[in-house]
């Protein structure tokens, strides 16, 4: 196994190339380069030095990853026959994916490497932009950039922006966080005689200047935290400030218990927005629900019991454990099998309880509690074989309630009415319906139709007392007819 000798060509021109690297290139009998598009190679060509480039490999693939893998595989195959010298732009271990593939192959025993430096383009970039990396910086790959990768509080350097297409992809990713007119700097050939810096608004990034393999995009940090409102850290800091010594008196007073009604309210408002298919309202209501989550997490941190990271770790590990067909090697045949696996894994995780109904109570909703109780009992076999049994039970409870309604005490009437509601919930279960959602929809329907009645009264005398029940009922039927037309 012969050695693959990897050499860095540096970030600039021949004058910046270390003398030792220059001598090695001059003495090379067989030199391979990732790309011939580099100022050092242009100058070496004038001195009669030749090489074989892998530029043609780029034409064979639609993405960069297979290009880098093929180059590495080719070099490994060549090294089985002879020693290989391979030259790359910059430093071999900075933003050079082909070398990372070679390093991985070396760990697997498939090749042997010797890596020699060349000036990293980072040194030249820091000098050109006059920035100190100790302030915090990110080096990101422009061919695989996601907005989640970007920390707006740091100096952001985006390498591997080769052409207008990759510049456009980088622009779109950045605009998910930054304003469209945020200033960015296009740095080309940093440290060389042809060094060029051009600052443009973000939206012009892909049409302002020609970019090439010596181009790096610089995004300066957003200094004010309240201007970084699309980052999780900012929202967390806002909540911590509100709960802090100089924050809001109301927020400081809240506890897990005091916030319960607000969480319920926000959840119901989100469900309403979903029912209305209002995307803007859904986004807003999701934010209100998220506020409750962050408040509870901050209270946990303030009390010293848990913090947001514990919440994230808990739900992330749960999703991984309960999706072995995604994160493991389990095979499933469909959604029903996924649910069965979920319940099986959940049962293994939960400690044994004294009753099947333990943990099924929902303090926020008696309807949901009733539904959960009956569902658990049914899973154990305590149910009718079909909906006919539930309907018969409903008729029985209906008659008992009518009897008590006619002559019974309030306590007995309440008891029998509860039994009646309980059977209705069971009927809903047989038909796969959520009684809670049904009640939400019924309330929403009533509100809309009664709103129409109010509108008609307002258009008339403005007083409900001036109308008979028959007239009001006519307005109600108008509302029903309008709703059917909309449907």
Automatic annotation (TrEMBL):
Any single GO BP term: response to stress
Residues covered by the Tetrapyrrole methylase domain: 4-205
Organism of origin: Planococcus koreensis
Transferase among keywords: yes
Residue ranges of every copy of the NTP pyrophosphohydrolase MazG-like domain listed in the record: 254-327
Keyword Transferase appears in the UniProt entry: yes
InterPro entries in the record: 4pyrrol_Mease (IPR000878), 4pyrrol_Methylase_sf (IPR035996), 4pyrrole_Mease_sub1 (IPR014777), MazG-like_dom (IPR004518), NTP-PPase_MazG-like_C (IPR048011), NTP-PPase_MazG-like_N (IPR048015), NTP_PyrPHydrolase_MazG (IPR011551), Tetrapyrrole_Mease/MazG_pred (IPR024180)
Record's protein name: Tetrapyrrole methylase family protein/MazG family protein
Organism superkingdom: Bacteria
Record Gene3D superfamilies: Cobalt-precorrin-4 Transmethylase, Domain 1, MazG-like
GO molecular function, one term: methyltransferase activity
Keywords attached to this entry: Methyltransferase, Transferase
Coiled coil: none
Classification via Pfam families: MazG, TP_methylase
């Amino acid at each position: 196994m012969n050695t693959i000798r990897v050499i860095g060509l540096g970030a600039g021109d021949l004058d910046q190339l270390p003398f030792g690297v220059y001598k090695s290139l001059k003495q090379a009998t067989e030199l391979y380069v990732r790309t011939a598009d580099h100022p050092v190679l242009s100058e070496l060509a004038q001195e009669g030095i030749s090489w074989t480039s892998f530029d043609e490999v780029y034409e064979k693939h639609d993405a960069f990853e297979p290009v880098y893998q093929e180059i590495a595989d080719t070099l490994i195959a060549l090294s089985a026959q002879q020693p290989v010298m391979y030259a790359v732009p910059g430093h071999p271990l900075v933003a050079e994916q082909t070398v990372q593939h070679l390093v991985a192959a070396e760990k697997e025993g498939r090749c042997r490497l010797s890596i020699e430096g060349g000036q990293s383009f980072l040194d030249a970039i820091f000098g050109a932009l006059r920035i100190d990396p100790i302030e915090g910086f990110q080096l990101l790959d422009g061919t695989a950039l996601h907005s989640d990768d970007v920390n707006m509080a740091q100096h952001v350097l985006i390498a591997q922006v080769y052409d207008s297409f990759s510049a456009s992809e980088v622009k779109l990713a950045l605009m998910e966080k930054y304003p469209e007119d945020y200033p960015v700097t296009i740095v080309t050939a940093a440290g060389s005689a042809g060094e060029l810096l051009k600052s443009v608004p973000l939206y012009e990034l892909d049409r302002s200047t020609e970019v090439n393999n010596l181009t790096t995009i610089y995004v300066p940090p957003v200094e004010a935290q309240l201007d970084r409102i699309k980052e999780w850290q900012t929202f967390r800091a806002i909540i911590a400030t509100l709960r802090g010594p100089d924050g809001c008196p109301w927020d400081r007073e809240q506890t897990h218990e005091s916030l319960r009604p607000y969480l319920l309210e926000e959840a119901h408002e989100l469900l309403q927005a979903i029912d209305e298919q209002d995307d803007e309202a859904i986004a807003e209501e999701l934010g209100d629900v998220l506020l409750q989550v962050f408040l509870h997490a901050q209270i946990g941190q303030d009390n010293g019991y848990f913090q947001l990271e514990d919440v994230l770790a808990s739900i992330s590990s749960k999703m991984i454990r309960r999706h072995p067909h995604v994160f493991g090697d389990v095979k499933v045949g469909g959604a029903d099998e996924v649910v069965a696996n979920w319940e099986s894994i959940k049962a293994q995780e939960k400690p044994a309880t004294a009753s099947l109904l333990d943990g099924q109570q929902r303090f926020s909703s008696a309807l949901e509690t009733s539904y959960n109780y009956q569902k658990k009992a049914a899973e154990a076999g305590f149910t009718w074989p079909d909906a006919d049994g539930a309907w018969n039970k409903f008729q029985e409870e209906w008659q008992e309630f009518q009897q008590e309604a006619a002559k019974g005490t309030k306590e007995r009437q309440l008891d029998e009415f509860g039994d009646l509601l309980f059977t209705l919930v069971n009927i809903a279960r047989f038909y796969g319906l959520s009684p809670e959602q049904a009640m939400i929809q019924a309330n929403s329907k009533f509100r809309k139709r009664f709103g129409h009645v109010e509108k008609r009264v307002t258009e008339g005398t403005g007083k409900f007392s001036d109308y008979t029940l028959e007239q009001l009922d006519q307005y109600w039927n108008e509302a029903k007819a309008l709703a059917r037309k909309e449907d």
